[in-house]
Amino acid sequence: MTSIKLTLLAKACLISGLALTSPSLIAAEKTIPELVDAVNGTPDAASREAGKNVKLRNHTKGFCTSGSFKPNPQLQQTLAIPFFNQDSIKVTARFSLGGTNPQISDKTAGRFMSLKIDGDKENLNFVTNVPVFFAKNLEEFFNFQTKVKQGPEGKQWLIDNQPSAKAFFDHVKQLPPSPSFANSRYFGVNSFLFSTQKNSVQQGETVAGKWIFEPVAGTAGLSASELANLSDDFLKAELLERIKTQPAQWNLYIQLAEMGDEINDPTVIWPETRQRLLVGQVRINGERDSDPQVQQCDKGIFNPLLLPKGITASADPILNARTAAYVESFIRRQ
Known about the structure:
The protein is α+β, with helices and mostly antiparallel strands. It is built from 11 helices and 11 strands. Helix 6 (about 150-160) crosses helix 7. The protein is globular, with a radius of gyration of 20 Å. The protein starts with 5 loop residues before the first helix and ends with a helix.
């Protein structure tokens, strides 16, 4: 990657001294227990206790594996993030499907990847989604999770009353199931603020951006006839067999905002023409799969607000509620 000059980077949305809202204040419109109840379908005290007994969690169907992350050394010409100065960093990955149903078919659309990149002194976690998120704030998130559990009538209510939910349904409807987690793109729908180098822009400024993982193997979709020949549980075996001979790889990019782009609303998709910075490459090869940390990654959480120096959270209310909600869900599963 060539060094990006001030004239190019100045196109991005530069933010100085942005005051971030406290997660507790953002979550005031809906409490964290209420949000977790909505995800789990446990709307009252009695059903919440029943939910604890069955260890409910979102993205229930999934598995853990491992690999490494190789940072792009040229990134440091543009961004001031010491974490990426390391040569190779160990990765714990969890691949999953959405929802709380552990029996959901792999033939459905939607693939998700969560990562823990554990450096020498700092850590960086990722949780990913399809590019279209269904809620711009906690009220919409609560509505979505509650209504979808009411069946067709609830879904129709969302289509009629919540434009972000309609956009999400429209996107998923046209999204073909991929034949492998390795053939899927993964998106960070929430924005973060990245510190820039002094020689790129004025000292002390930050640039807003979103994470995007692009599969090196390319994207692919299954036809109806191809799906008919597959079991409901093909994805895990496919990936673990694949990485015995070649790693599954993704190039990690930061997509930069431009002036006027909405950075605190995860339902807004920025144009594909927005500039990207190559951060590095994720290589999943199972090299540490015997490590207890990897084998037990299902028992922990992936905290997207565990950030190294040079990266801070935006004021996105969905982002700032994630950690507390994940902790609440984790506690209920114990």
